[in-house]
Specification:
With 484 residues, the chain is of the alpha/beta class. It has three domains: 10-73, Arc Repressor Mutant, subunit A (Orthogonal Bundle), CATH 1.10.10; 126-367, Aspartate Aminotransferase, domain 2 (3-Layer(aba) Sandwich), CATH 3.40.640; 372-483, Aspartate Aminotransferase, domain 1, CATH 3.90.1150. Helix content is 43%, strand content 14%. It has 15 helices and 16 strands. The strands form four sheets. It has an eight-stranded mixed beta sheet with strand order 4-11-10-9-8-5-6-7, with helices on both faces. The chain has a four-stranded antiparallel beta sheet with strand order 12-13-16-15, with helices on one face. A two-stranded antiparallel sheet has the order 1-2. Helix 2 crosses helix 3, helix 5 (128-142) packs across helix 12 (353-365) and helix 7 (183-195) packs across helix 11. The structure holds pyridoxal-5'-phosphate.
Length: 484
């Protein structure tokens, strides 16, 4: 308790108290500290004293101050470094990753699996009840119309809602520029086929989302990997050198939140990225599925906002923010509109009208925005918790990213460990993770894996993460006994 006559400054005593609560587990990484007013009245000290303690804790890197929200405890993150950049050879390659992707998907969907291998961050705060309520109402009102085909490029009121959201962000978007797709994956498939053909070179981040690599593989294109730092995204010098050296027909980047690292490019860098690519007249496909789930204190804009030539095609969806199973996504592009519509017609004719109706109502009701706000907070808290567990239970020399949004961390095990082996061991314990090699076209990231924290946090999740730590130790021991 606070001792007023002691030699210790009062604010220091408040700090000691918070640290003691952290040590005892009363306060855990990601938790919100009591408000200034509440703690000052509980401890019978002034508000400025508590404020001084919180500011000092922030200076020491132990808490985060979030505007209009409060102070949050960080994980200790003492010696835990970010994954290192591997060596890159600047050469386009054919992609071959299908077999392991199949194995990873199978693992995610086996019964009783702890799904740490799937990125569905909305499950951390799922809006199932709100969506079910709307679905019931819509079904009752629509009668047989609910079974009909929808318009090829999407349900106009939903397109209007999406366009309005872009306009509110300051991004010029007309309802006609939006095509509703079956998830972002179809939007990406259409965008890439509007801009490149078999044999063409497409620049991708490295590491990048394996769904993009799978598209490139299936379309017979070549991938050119551009190094992407787990702190601030794509390395622009490398990008320029690669564009100088090769005839790149399109780029596919997630500049806001990268999957798997969770990196977020700073605004100035994002702006520069668009300048570089548009100055070379190369189409830039922006995969922005996690953009709304960033942890930055100020709003961040999609690359579309910086486009001067209309060469940016934005692809996104409701999969990460509302319901992955609805399979509703969209693409935004004026320049490629006609070509894109042709592909959409040929590929899937239209997307589920019923699901578009439900999402239109969900967005209109305001619940969508309210849940995104809540979701960001929950994900941020989960992130601190998983980082803290990794720090405690994983071997020394493990590295981990510090995601700036989304629901996954990128972990690099110590030298000698193989993450595909780790993945298979984990599956035998009913835990799925995603092995690192899936995120590269050239077999990089053999020691890395993506682990999800985008699910309701509970004791079982904690035990699964601890188990992953145990399994990584067993990989290390095996390696040492082989060496011995
Ligand atoms: C970076 C990224 N892009 C696109 C997708 C595909 O999204 P959707 O489920 O909307 O097709 C995913 C899904 O995991 C993703 O992580």
């Amino acid at each position: 308790m606070i001792q007023k006559g002691s030699d210790h400054f009062l604010y220091q005593q408040v700090i000691d108290l918070i640290q003691a609560m952290q040590t005892s587990g009363t306060l855990r990484p990601g938790d919100k500290l009591p408000s200034l007013r509440k703690l000052s009245s509980q401890l019978n000290v002034s508000i400025p004293t508590v404020k001084q303690a919180y500011v000092e804790l922030e200076r020491l890197g132990k808490v985060d101050a979030r505007p209009k929200s409060g102070y949050y405890l960080r994980s200790a993150r003492m010696g835990i470094a970010s994954p290192k950049r591997p060596t890159f050879v600047r050469r386009p390659v054919e992609v071959r990753c299908q077999t392991l992707i199949e194995e990873a998907y199978e693992a995610v969907h086996s019964p009783n699996m702890m799904p740490l291998g799937v990125s569905h961050p909305v499950m951390a705060s799922p809006p199932d009840k709100a969506l079910a309520r709307i679905m019931r109402r819509v079904l009752a009102q629509a009668g047989p119309k609910a079974m009909a085909y929808g318009p090829m490029d999407g349900y106009a009121p939903l397109k209007r809602q999406i366009a309005q959201r872009y306009l509110e962000q300051g991004v010029e978007a007309r309802q006609e520029d939006i095509i509703i797709t079956n998830g972002a994956q179809e939007a990406l498939a259409i965008a890439i086929q509007c801009t490149a053909k078999a044999g063409d070179i497409v620049a991708v981040e490295s590491p990048t989302y394996f769904g993009i690599l799978e598209l490139i593989e299936n379309l017979g294109m070549m991938a050119l990997e551009i190094p992407t730092c787990s702190l601030d995204g794509i390395c622009l010098d490398d990008l320029q050198e690669s564009l100088d050296a090769h005839d790149v027909k399109a780029c596919i980047f997630s500049s806001l939140i990268n999957n798997p690292t969770g990196s977020c490019m700073p605004e100035r860098k994002r702006q520069r990225l668009v300048e570089i690519i548009e100055s070379r007249n190369i189409p830039l496909i922006e995969d922005d599925v996690y953009g709304e789930l960033h942890f930055c204190d100020e709003e961040v804009l999609p690359l579309q906002a910086y486009s001067k030539k209309g060469l940016v095609i934005t692809c996104s969806s409701f999969s990460k923010t509302a319901a992955p199973s609805y399979r509703i996504g969209w693409m935004l592009s004026s320049r490629y509109e006609q070509k894109a519509k042709g592909f959409k017609r040929a590929l899937s004719c239209s997307s589920s009208l019923l699901n578009q109706w439900v999402l239109t109502e969900y967005v209109r009701s305001g619940d969508f925005d309210r849940n995104i706000k809540r979701l960001r907070q929950v994900l941020r808290q989960n992130k601190e918790r998983i980082l803290s567990l990794i720090e405690q239970y994983f071997p020394e020399k493990t590295c981990v990213s510090n995601p700036q949004g989304g629901g996954v961390v990128w972990v690099e095990l110590p030298p000698g460990c193989d993450s595909t082996e780790w993945f298979r061991l984990a599956v035998s314990e009913s835990i799925s993770i995603t092995p690192g090699v899936l995120f590269s076209a050239t077999g990089k990231y053999k020691r890395c894996a993506r682990i999800s924290y985008g699910l309701p946090w509970c004791q079982t999740v904690e035990s699964a993460v601890k188990k992953l730590g145990e399994l990584s130790y067993s990989l290390l021991n095996k390696k040492m006994s082989k060496a011995g």
